[in-house]
Design brief:
mainly beta, 1 helix, globular
Length: about 250
Amino acid sequence: MRGLAALLFCASIAGCGGPAGGESAVRDGRAGARAEDDCAPQEAALGGTCWSAVGTRWRVDAEGPGGAYHFTLALLAAGRVRADDHDGASPARDEWFQDGTLLRVFLGDRFVEYRTRVSNGTVLIGEAINVRGQRWSFRADRDFGEAPCAADEAHLDAACMTVAGTRWELDGHVVAFLDEGRVAVDDDADVTGRWEQVGQALSFTLEEGAPTRVAEVEDASELRGTYEGRDGSWSATRVRSLPPVMHE
């Protein structure tokens, strides 16, 4: 449902769930060192391992302002989310962030946020809040096992990835891959560029009549490619999105 579009994940998880090397990025801490000292800022120290939410999938149940609702989430690479909370949901508008044990998922252009403190990788129990200030609790149960990527997503090591909703530094400009296949350059309101992704294959133009750039999506932080029908190469570095200030 639309009113549940951008929720805060403010919950706790108990009992570490997925296998090492599975859907989420889990790596062993250094021998003799505390996991907290070894984990990256985007990882949670859980039971001697470093746990990342990237690539995990969840079934969400909640009792919101409009009644009970249920939907699924897939936390994609590059901080995007594939959700089915309403018909218009899109990774171009849904995103997630992890800071240590704090996991935040925003849906519907940050209309609703789900927030949780991760204590294991199996169950999330937390709070959601929307831009109207309405709050409610939720529970999310982990889905394990292999799941195919969507037709417009690339399969990376531990997760699926779409460029939808992402921003990149390219030739001194910031290029944004918007919904409905649109490409914006430096937030210009006059959007005439187009993009398309089929599996790993990405093609896009920066403006109408501009050369078509092509690439294989193989990395969540960098794109490298060539031009269609002409010589030359190009590269782009992803501009990381920043979450809003968190209010209790």
